[in-house]
Amino acid sequence: MVALAFALFAFGSGWFLIGLVHVWSHPIVGWFSPLAMSVLVTYAYVRVSRSPHLPAATRRFWQHLTMSGFALIATVVSAMDDMLLSGPVPTQQFSTRTLVLLTVILAFVLWALLRLPAWQRTPGDWARFAIDTGVLVITCGGLLWQFSLRHAEVWQGQGAAMLGICVLALTGMIAIAKVAFAGTGQLDRRALQLLSGGVAGSSATGALAPFLVDRPYLSTAILSVPIATLFTALAAERQRRAKPEEPAEEQPLGRRFSVLPYLAVAAMTGTLLVGEAGRGGDQLFIAVCVAALTALVVIRQITALRDNRRLLDTVDANLQQLNAYQRKLAHEVTHDALTGIANRPAFTEQATARLAAGDGCHVALLDLDDFKVVNDRLGHSMGDALLRAVSGRLLERLRPADLVARLGGDEFVLLLPGLDDERVAALLAEVADAVQQPLSLHGHDLAPRLSIGVTAAQEGDTPEEMIRRADVAMYAAKNMGGARCTWFDPIMDQLADADARLAADLRQAIARDELFLLYQPIVELPHGRLAGVEALLRWRHPEHGLVSPGVFIPLAERNGYIVELGRWVLEQVVRQAAEWERTYGPNAPEKVSVNISARQLREPGFPAQVAELLRESGLDPYRLVAEVTETAVLGTGEALDAVRELHALGMRVALDDFGTGQSSLSLLVDCPVKVLKVDKSFVDGVTGTSAQAVIVDGLIGITEGLRIEAVAEGVETEDQAFRLHKMGYRFAQGFHFARPMAGDDIALLLGVSVTGKVDNFH
């Protein structure tokens, strides 16, 4: 269509230019171009007004222009009839019908512009628009009348009508120019600029009509109509192809310097001087003075405007800095400072909007397993680097519609809209696989593991409730060993409520005297002599009876109560060990082991508290053995420093459950270990040829070489005890020798073999 428009325009322009020097015998042929282009541009209007991707206001604008296109076709036909068909000779006289049709065209254009809803300006903007319109209309109208209309005999009887049409055309031109300059937010800016250029070109060529009075067979419509229709056809095609996500941006009008008033003043002043030059005398002198004063006033105003412009530029620079700072603050309010992803407020805002709109969505809570180990072992800077790497992997794997936010620590939350349960499960599996790929950070190889809890939105949900359910599911995944994804089930709430009530009761257990200690003997192989005891905490609940340590110890670790429990246990153990030492002297248990949690080790001043307990009780520190797990001291963090301080007090350190966590033989060097307790899971297979037996056999060689005592835990059969002794183990504990017992019962065993079952080892 664009190529056809250019071809028709070329034909019309060529016909007109040749007609300036050649008399056409069939002038009606020249009207083919304006008529065809009128039809073509109307078709272009129809196409763009029916484009479904455009906003309604934009389509309405082009629908109004479509009406002006039909009026243009009628106007061209009417003008052909006026100039070539109504009389025996060609004429340039327009009939009233044609003038009315021209007015209708301009009215449709102005109405289309006035209906645009996006041009929202202040009253001052509208005042400037009206002033500029008045300046342009008065100037152009005056010049047109002075140099064209009033001197042309062809316009006799139509001067006032044609002047009105010219004024209306000028108003339309400045309206389109203003809109094109300012933008509307609905129409393509380049399309508006093309419309403005078409109206201006058409008006300029149309004003040449008085100079063609001696060529009645040639009309400016042959040139002005193709110019207007070419530009408007190009504008329509531009608008039709414009993307909906590229609206024109609103720009302030007040700061732009307009030369229009100064050009108008210069034009009218020049006209005045030309008019008075022929008269001479006082009138010419006054006109020159007026022109000089006008020039000086204009120069003075431009100078003031330049000064104001410099001041405003300074203000703008400061405002830009302020806006940049505000944008930075706004970003920080909604984004996590460490990872750069969204934070909890941003998640809450988006989740609230999704839920309010009734959009289906899922929330998944992700937590890194053993993240504290990374922090303690490799330092917090490595932990931060891991969090950033995980954030990047999450962003890479999720869809654009998804949201990932960091809640704090090593917890991330995902908002997953528009997916069913099956697709969410598949996406989370892909996310977990991507995040858990091994990575190297600052020379360290890491293999992150994720525990994920996920829940679907329900009616009446809030973001906080969805996070709570996902958190419950995530902890269920951790309790099952971690590195898995668990969906929320209502039964989990019941279990969580039960845990919460149990945790509340646990906080009262010390005051209610519900806690007590049992001591399990550690014997020396093969004869079974009592070599020491391990203190074990028990809880007798008034309703539930004996609660397993596997239940209440993890509860205490999660809610932080483990620190208070550990302090109470330590006080009881030190008191009991001191009492045995005073009562039995050398026959007292050589070592009394007490379990120390990772949280206790990280408590500020913990070694000092232990030192104070030992001083007050008078207990020989060498008799007290601090049992710690390998995960509690893995690395070079606060926990390992605390263990070294306990060793410096004279206490012995036992590494408990060795081999069940992220075992590292370097611990046996870095940590001042004096006792290595081999976990029951390895001891169970010691009588066969399994891998466990190989590990148990290998460990005794390592401990002997490092001069570390090895204690086999969980010995339940005589065969296991016999096999361990043959391997070289000298210490063991388990139900085969004795079950945990009260402190008073231990007194009966002091200096006596625990059992005679081991006497047949030889």
UniProtKB/TrEMBL annotation:
Protein species of origin: Paractinoplanes rishiriensis
Residue ranges of every copy of the GGDEF domain listed in the record: 359-490
Keyword Membrane: yes
A matching Pfam family: EAL
InterPro entries according to UniProt: Biofilm_reg_signaling, EAL_dom, EAL_sf, GGDEF_dom, Nucleotide_cyclase, Rev_trsase/Diguanyl_cyclase
EAL domain: residues covered: 499-754
Listed SUPFAM superfamilies: EAL domain-like (SSF141868), Nucleotide cyclase (SSF55073)
Domain of life, per lineage: Bacteria
Keyword Transmembrane helix applies: yes
Keyword annotations of the record: Membrane, Transmembrane, Transmembrane helix
Protein name: Diguanylate cyclase/phosphodiesterase
Annotated transmembrane regions: 29-49, 61-79, 99-117, 129-148, 160-180, 192-211, 217-236, 284-302
